[in-house]
């Protein structure tokens, strides 16, 4: 019963989304609305801020991982007694959990900052180019069809990178 309801909800939601997209496209052709799309994955991964924060996060991760590996080596050492091993094991477990937590929190907070900046720059880009709508799609999974002539991914990526680097 629940599975049937969730399937029905999924179908209804999909129809609503497709109807909305169809409506937007239909009205764009009749009202001279300028609609373009971008590949959000390419935009996010190509953004200088993403690369910068990823590099910073990787450096922090590596230093924490090295410390964890050193601790593990100490635990494996034959020169420590059982009580020392127990203390080190507790420390190892705690530091491993902290490392996993760091990864999750860092990725979430930094992604949020990056998308906030992309959205801000995209709004300015849209105004400068008189676009009424920029549709973001991940490898065209939510868009059934889009002509390659209306993608502005590369232009927007160049624009946001220049803005981020203070060149525009």
Automatic annotation (TrEMBL):
Signal peptide: none annotated. Keywords: Membrane, Transmembrane, Transmembrane helix. It holds the Pfam family OmpH. The chain crosses the membrane at residues 7-26. One of its GO terms (molecular function) is unfolded protein binding. This is Outer membrane chaperone Skp (OmpH).
């Amino acid at each position: 019963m629940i599975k049937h309801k969730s399937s029905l909800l999924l179908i209804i939601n999909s129809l609503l989304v497709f109807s909305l997209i169809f409506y937007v496209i239909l009205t764009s052709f009749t009202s001279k609305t300028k609609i373009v799309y971008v590949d959000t994955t390419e935009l996010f991964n190509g953004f200088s801020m993403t690369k910068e924060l990823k590099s910073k996060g990787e450096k922090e991760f590596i230093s924490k991982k090295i410390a964890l590996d050193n601790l593990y080596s100490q635990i494996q050492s034959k020169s420590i007694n059982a009580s020392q091993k127990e203390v080190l094991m507790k420390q190892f477990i705690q530091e491993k959990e902290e490392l996993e937590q760091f990864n999750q929190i860092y990725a979430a907070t930094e992604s949020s900052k990056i998308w906030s900046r992309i959205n801000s720059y995209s709004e300015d880009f849209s105004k400068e180019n008189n676009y009424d709508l920029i549709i973001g799609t991940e490898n065209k999974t939510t868009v059934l069809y889009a002509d390659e002539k209306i993608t502005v991914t590369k232009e927007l990526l160049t624009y946001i990178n220049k803005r981020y680097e203070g060149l525009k």
